[in-house]
Task: inverse folding
DNA sequence: AAGTGGACCTGCTAGC
DNA sequence: TGCTAGCAGGTCCACT
């Protein structure tokens, strides 16, 4: 579910409310992607700092290290003063003096793991493979062009891989390629510089607009207030197989690339 | 080294 | 109505 906009919307919805809180208790539930990596009791008494985002990860700094969180495919974080007892899909509670941060994640592809620091194992290994942030001024068409050079995977898969630019998931990859009028099947390394310029701009634009819309709620995304996003209503191609392209009227197609659906318009995105 | 496919896990929906 | 196959926002890892 959560791509960069959803993760950032989530961060913005609880970061200021949890900052400065003292941890009273950490309660792990069913196993997530990885074990927590520390004794939950050791987190008690520590003060929470300013929550950061890197790619689709959130970093909750504590006095001794911090918690790296990922929402996987179906995760969401809630923050409230007095949450109900955990349900069957609530797998982590961080109880603090200012409220309870709760990870809800039916598929359990998400993660909460302790790391002694952002620059220490295991956070360092996980974050180290990530590409540039799309809103970093250094993310330009020139950089994109350079980083895609020689890559024979499709541009769609290269965007999803996250080692070039982070935060673009399955929805926004299709949307950005449509906005940039680029065929998702093209080999990444075959994109000329001018198309990389257009794609970099499209990635930023789509993500910014999704962020402004509160993200996309296809089925269950919620921010920490419990609010859903509205960007799915602006989607031009994602989830619109068989419908008419809003721009050119051609039928939106669905193909499978790397075992994931890709949506595109052959009219707007010619080979 | 880069590309591919499988793995993780649960829930919902379309179709028979 | 009930079952099943297929699909879902991510990404790591083993293998070629």
Result:
């Amino acid at each position: 579910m959560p791509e960069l906009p959803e993760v950032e919307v989530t961060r913005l919805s609880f970061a200021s409310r949890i900052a400065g809180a003292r941890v009273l208790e950490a309660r792990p539930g069913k196993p997530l992607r990885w074990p927590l990596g520390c004794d939950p009791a050791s987190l008690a008494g520590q003060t929470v700092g300013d929550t950061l985002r890197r790619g689709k990860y959130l970093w909750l700094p504590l006095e001794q290290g911090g918690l790296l969180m990922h929402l996987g495919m179906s995760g969401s974080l809630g923050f409230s003063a007095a949450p109900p007892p955990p349900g069957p899909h609530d797998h982590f509670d961080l109880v603090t003096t200012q409220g309870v941060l709760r990870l809800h994640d039916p598929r359990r592809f998400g993660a909460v793991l302790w790391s002694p620091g952002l620059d220490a194992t295991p956070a360092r290994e996980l974050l180290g493979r990530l590409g540039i942030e799309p809103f970093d001024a250094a993310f330009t068409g020139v950089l994109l062009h350079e980083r895609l050079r020689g890559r024979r995977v499709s541009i769609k898969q290269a965007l999803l891989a996250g080692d070039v630019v982070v935060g673009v998931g399955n929805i926004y990859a299709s949307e950005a390629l449509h906005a940039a009028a680029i065929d998702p099947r093209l080999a990444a390394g075959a994109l000329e510089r001018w198309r990389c310029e257009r794609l970099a701009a499209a990635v930023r634009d789509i993500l910014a607009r999704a962020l402004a819309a509160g993200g996309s709620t296809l089925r269950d995304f919620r921010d920490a207030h419990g609010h859903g996003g509205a960007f799915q209503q602006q989607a031009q191609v994602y989830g619109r197989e068989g419908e008419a392209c809003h721009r050119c009227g051609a039928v939106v197609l669905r193909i499978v690339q790397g075992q994931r659906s890709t949506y595109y318009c052959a009219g707007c995105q010619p080979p």
Q: What stands out?
A: Residues 33, 72-74, 89, 105-109, 150-153, 157, 219, 258-259 of chain A lie near DNA strand B (CB under 10 Å from a C1'). The mean pLDDT of chain A is 96. The beta strands of chain A are 23-28, 52-54, 57-61, 66-70, 76-80, 90-96, 99-104, 111-115, 252-257, 260-265. Chain A is about 25% helix and 20% strand.
